[in-house]
Every structure is written in structure tokens, then in C-alpha cells.
Amino acid sequence: MSGAVSAGGSDTEAAHRAVELAARASYGRLVAILASRSHDVAAAEDALGDAFAAALSQWPTSGVPDGPEAWLVATARRRLSDRDRRARVADGAADSLAYAATFVDVTSQSPLHVRGGHAAFPDRRLGLLFACAHPGVDAGVRTPLMLQVVLGVDVETIASAFLVAPVAMAQRLVRAKRKLRDAGIPFTIPEPEELLPRLAAVLEAIYAAFGTGWDAVAGGDARRVDLAEEAIWLGRLTVDALPEEAEARGLLALMLYCHARRSARSDASRAGASAGLRSGAYVPLTDQDPSQWSMPLIGEAEATLMSAARLLSPGRFQLEAAIQSAHLSPAFGRPRDWAAIVALYDALIAYAPTVGALVSRAAALGEASGAAAGLGASDAIPRDVAATYQPWWALRAHLLARLGRNAEAREAYQRAAGLTLAPSIRDFLLARRDALEGID
Fold it and tell me: Which of 225, 324, 366, 375 shows its CA 20 to 30 Å from the CA of 53?
């Protein structure tokens, strides 16, 4: 194989890097490919796990193959065959031939398809997303199932996002996979009449995946950063599949707006110098340098949102995208219109009165009408809902400091810092707290 490397310590490192890259970039896609035939997600995951273990054992001596994904699929398929898993579902000859044609022969030097310089399989994740949104799967576990199966997010991360113990989340996922297997649900894009009832769940899962990657940029697990780009890719596939669905376009626009300012969220030269923070300091949106935002992505987001608006079917994601657009007005040399942002949040809350939307509206109101108004709106949010929500404490601390209530602000900053897992955000909040020491 031309991709093989010579024996030695570096070979093991290269093999481990290749396995890690395949797991990070392709786990969900590989599970989708394997499950497309067996209809058994758990069996596909088990076989893929065995294939990764085999790669860690063999690649240091045999060399990393030119098509790592093809090697993993072929090995996992052999595991499935050995366990006689394929006997669960009868495969027609035409189906077998269709799937066989989609894979690279691991002995071949010619990749089937190249995207971004790497051999890649046709992306079947969209079909798997819609399969996981099947009415037979409990609504409360659809998004977690998609995150784990399609994008390979670990159970601990999913459990944290849904405020559930990891053991409980793992049990829910196992039950859901068993239900998928026993029902023989096909992992293909459903018939047209079945797509729309499942679309909302699919969009929620894509957005949750994007949020996981977005949080990682702020200082969480760097291995999940690529999830944001994967989510955008899935958003594009969804728009292609359902071009007349405004909310699919709205979600894509929302993700593009956010991703456009990814590089500006961490900036040691500005935030670090002013607050004494370590390299890679977190920079909040209102302090970001617009020149660091991606104008091509902003332009694409604007065009996507306009195309959604022309479909005359407003919804939550379009409103969230419109809010992001208003926040990015400094990119065009215009100040933010905080009153307009408050009005957009009012409209959003009518669709989705989430704690996140309520806190963000309070923050915008604090800018539009003063800190006292913002604090009043923040205090109006039920404490049992807000008490464990880190942005609520961060906003409360900011508004209290603006009102000169520094002792209360320090306590709120401390609470906010204790509720975040991102080191850069924790440093930012603690620096704000420390700046108020001795000022009462």
C-alpha cells in the first residue's frame, strides 16, 4: 500500500492518529453504512468497535491503508458476517449490489470519491437521521440517539446537554437501538410523505450537534470542534433534500452566522491583555473584532435567510438567524439596534419560550433600556428554571456590576464560573469577578 509507513515507534503514533481521525471524522457515517444493511445499530457499533481495535493492532506493523474508512468498513462487515447478524434482515440481490457498488475495494489504489482531499463514502447520515426520528422511537430520545449514532458524540456529553445522569442516558439509548432493530426500521430517507413529520426532530439534532462543536471552540473538548462543520454539512444536505422547507434554510443560516465569527471568540491579544488572561482567552460577542468575522460566510447566511423568508413560513430557526444577523451589523459598519433585537426575541419567545431565549432577551433589554430593566427581566425568569443555567448567572453578574452591586455581582460570577466546563469561559468569568474585589 502506498500509505504504509516503515516499522518503528513513529509507526504506532501514525496508526493511532489515523484511527483517532477516522473515529472523529467518520464514526457516524461508518455506523450508518454498516446499519444500512443490518438494520441493527448496536451490532453495527459493536462491529465497528472491533474494527477500530483491529486497526490499532495491525496498522502499526502493516501500515495505514490508503483508504482507512474502506478498511474499517470491510473489517466491520466481516465481524458482522462472523456473528451471523445479517441473518436478521433479508437482503435482496439488488440491494446487495447497490451497497457493494458504494465501497472501495481495500486492495484497490483508486478511491471511489474524493472530498476535501480524502477518500469518502456517499453520505448516508441524512437517511439515518430521519430513521432515528421514526415515530416508533420515543420523542425524548430521538435527538440523543441521532447525536450518538450519526455523529458519534459520547454518552457523557449527551447526558450533560440533557441534564441526565450518564447511566440513565445510556439505558435510554440502548432501549432505543433495540426498538430500531426489532422493528426492522430501514436506514434510508423515508418516503416524501414521511419526511415532514420527522423534520423538526432532525433539525433539533443537527442544531444540538452544532452546539456541541460550538461549545468546544470556547474551550471544551477540542475533539468535538469539528462537529460544528459536520452539522453545517448535514444542514446543507437537509436543504438539498427539502428545498421548500423554510426552517431547514433558517437553521443553515443560523449555523453559518455563528460559524462566521468562530475565530473571533478566542483572542489573547485583546482579551488577554486587558484582563490578564492566559493565551486563548474567551471574547464575548459584544467585544469581538468584526474584522475577524468571515464575510463570505455572513454573505452566504444572509442569502440563505432571505431565501427562507421568501417561502413565507416563519419559524424558530429563522428568527434565531435574524437575531444573529442583527448582532453582526458591525460587520457592515452599523451599530447594533438593540431595540430591534429585543423585538426579535419577543417574536422568538412566542414560538419557543426556552430559558435561553428568555435570558438572551433580558441581556438585549439591558442594552436597549438599561441594566435595571435587564435585571428585572432576568429576575422574572423562574428561579427553578434558571438556577442551574450558567448564562443566567453570567448575565445577572454583568448587570449587577453595571448597577454597582458589586458584592452580589462577585457571587454571581462565582456561580457562573462553577457551572461552565469551558476553561476559557471560566477564566473570563473569574477575571471579571476578581476585577470587582475591594469595590463595594
Answer: 225
